[in-house]
Predict the structure.
Amino acid sequence: MGARTASSTPGPLRRMIGLARPRGTRFALGVLAGAVATASGVGLLSLAAWLIATAATSPPITALSAAVVATRALGVTRGVARYLERLVTHDAALRTLADARVRVYARLARTEPVRRFRSGDLVSRLVSDTDATQDLLVRGLTPPLAALVTGAATVALSTALLVPGGLLLAGGLLLAGLAVPLVAAVLGRGPGRRQAAARGELSTALVDALHGAPDLVAYGAMDRAVRRVERADAELTRVARRDAGLLGLGAGASALIAGLTLWGTLLLGVAAVEAGTLGPVPLAVLVLTALAAFEIVAPLPAAAARLGAIRAGGARLFDVLDTPPAVRGHAGGALPPGALQVRDLRVRYGPGEPWALDGLDLDLPPGARVAVVGPSGSGKSTLAAVLFRFRDPDAGTVRLGGADLTAHAPDASRAMISGVPQHPHLFASTMRENLRLARPDATDADLWDVLARVRLATDVAAMPRGLDSDVGTHGARLSGGMRQRLALARALLTDARLLVLDEPTSHLDPDTRDAVLDDLLAATGDRGLLLVTHDLSRLDRMDAIHVVVGGRVVQRGTHTELLAAEGWYRRAHGLCARGPGRVAAAAR
């Protein structure tokens, strides 16, 4: 079955309402409670009008007793029903909101959508745009439905008292409760989209300025970053003023319609009294009922004006949920251990982009140690991303133990292939919890052992709280070398049979780098190791080296064999041997 076309896809508002379908009964009860609360308010004023008008005729007190009791009952009922409406609808809306957040988190947990949105904009989508679901259900759905029920009952009462008065009230309610909200919704659509976009831009500017503050200060660019935040804030303020103006316009129009309807009802009622078709007491009830009736539709223009922002927020929310996965494969069962075979692997990052990998072939037997080297931009990290299941190949095959890696679920692949990506992430938690992410049942002895293998145990022991020391946001409290070694330690804790290390010794000084590599090679034991690096030191200890240039393997062999052959490896190794200043040239 083909993919759905854009025209067949429901709009964001319908899809947001669809999220609440499992709790439809709760919302129905909330609407009923809201209708009872509003009807009690209208009935309270109508009954009060009857009571005052009737009392003016000096009837026996017993004639008023029932009305007095009913007035008190309606007052209590109004408060209780309003409380129940808020309780039931907010409970249902918050549960629906929780479900929506879980869906978003589950989608983002598949890794690849995170990389498609800027961090600040993604935060806005997770918070403000997801919260739009609650706004729609509580403010955009419940009041109109309650108004429909109560408005119909109020018009029926007014029509029973005086037919022209009931028809006039129906027209006024339709104008204030339907026409004005429709105009407000149309006028608010553009500002709503701009408000959602402006909120995302402000969040992005703030996150960029805060996270990049050290570099911005170092390069004298903080003033530009602050001005960007100020411009984003000014744009959001401007759009918010426009939105407030629409709310004021809607409230003013509703008040005008209510006043005109009230005057019209009064004139019709007076004429009917003079004609003898309506009594003085029903006149008072008719007029005050018309006055109270507009309480029913009072929230609707504001709710309609917010629909534009809610619709835009919903569209941004479903942008995340509808992002097509870059990684597929759902075959059950574990992948078998065995050799890694990559054949004719082709990957590019967009339809019009050049091939990052263009027919790459690679073999890694069980327990072997293979290095992948090459100039910057040759596709080395793209190969690592494919093996980590951060993206799938556009063509070619990747097999482990004879099984197609891309046909299995990503978690099944990661149980067999783990390691350290080029930019490993540290969570804002303790050293212990960052390590136990790889093996939750690891003991403290296991943690100290793996820290010793990456030469980090002494540094951690010197910290005031040891393993309970907080690493800060993104590991900000650690040096670059310590962050890298902690990521290496985490990789060594896994039970994966193949470790893929993408630039594992970056940020390390030469002495520590060589020592860590020696310990790393010793620590891998009988596990396979694929080392992706631009650093050519210690490669004499690898079983095989693959030189990747232009997205394909142009040389393969041992360190000795590649040094003996003319090609990129011998030239790069010669440049590196001349001094540290030549390393960058070798990488290019």
About this structure: The beta strands are 340-347, 357-364, 369-373, 395-400, 403-404, 417-420, 498-502, 528-532, 544-549, 552-557. The chain has 19 helices and ten strands. Residues 340-587 form a domain with the Rossmann fold fold (CATH 3.40.50.300). Confidence is low (pLDDT under 50) at residues 1-8, 580-588.
